[in-house]
Design a protein that fits this description.
This protein has about 210 residues and is an alpha/beta fold. The protein is built from 6 helices and 9 strands, in the order H-H-E-H-E-H-E-E-H-E-E-E-H-E-E.
């Protein structure tokens, strides 16, 4: 997005809205957890959640016994809220304030997860930078799980346009070095009793 300050936008969202009043709120991120568990990564695998903000995925992964979790989000406010909620457990998670299209990750991960961050990238350069970052950050054989609004989902979220993805479109967004494992479509019920249709795809790097 040209001339759009993503960081300021999301810091403002997280400053002015409670999590329970955000459309993406999920106290139990069932689909993400199922895809992570289905991937076969071990409980000690290095998992990074992109755009995780103050979502409950890190909480639920800790509850399930995963021990190496990183959350990257552009909003420091969102990460602060997550750390406050987790209290003493927050020290078990690595927190990174950064933009996935620009941030240089220094570790290699076994699984990269993203629910509802990638579809905010509407500029092709950002899309390509994101894909390149994911490829570089994942070890060979690592798993990439990405969830976006489908072609039947919303066209905007939090006041800004998003990019809708069919299963084929999302697969085509990661053509270099990734092999598709599978894709599904699921409905998310928002706190406002509206339904958002998502496309989730899983890929394996270097196979």
């Amino acid at each position: 997005m040209e001339n759009f300050d993503r960081k300021s936008h999301w810091d403002n969202i997280y400053t002015t809205k409670d999590l329970e009043n955000c459309s993406w709120y999920q106290p139990d991120p069932v689909t993400s957890l199922e895809l992570i568990e289905r991937s076969g990564v071990s409980k000690s695998a290095k998992i990074i959640d992109i755009g995780g903000g103050d979502s409950y995925l890190a909480d639920r992964l800790l509850e399930k016994g995963y021990t190496d979790i990183t959350v990257l989000d552009i909003s420091e406010v969102a990460l602060f809220r997550a750390k406050e909620r987790l209290e003493d457990q927050s020290g078990k998670v690595k927190w990174i304030v950064g933009d996935a299209t620009q941030y240089t990750l220094t570790e290699k991960y076994d699984l990269w997860h993203d629910r509802a961050a990638f579809h905010f990238l509407t500029d092709l350069n950002d899309v390509n930078s994101y894909a390149a970052t994911a490829k570089k950050a994942l070890r060979d054989g690592g798993i990439l799980v990405v969830g976006t609004f489908s072609e039947n989902g919303p066209k905007k979220c939090s006041g800004i346009k998003i990019e809708q993805y069919s299963q084929e479109d999302l697969s085509n967004a990661f053509p270099d070095g990734f092999k598709r494992i599978g894709c599904i479509n699921v409905d998310h019920l928002t706190p406002f009793n509206t339904t958002q249709n998502f496309t989730f795809c899983s890929f394996r790097k270097g196979v």
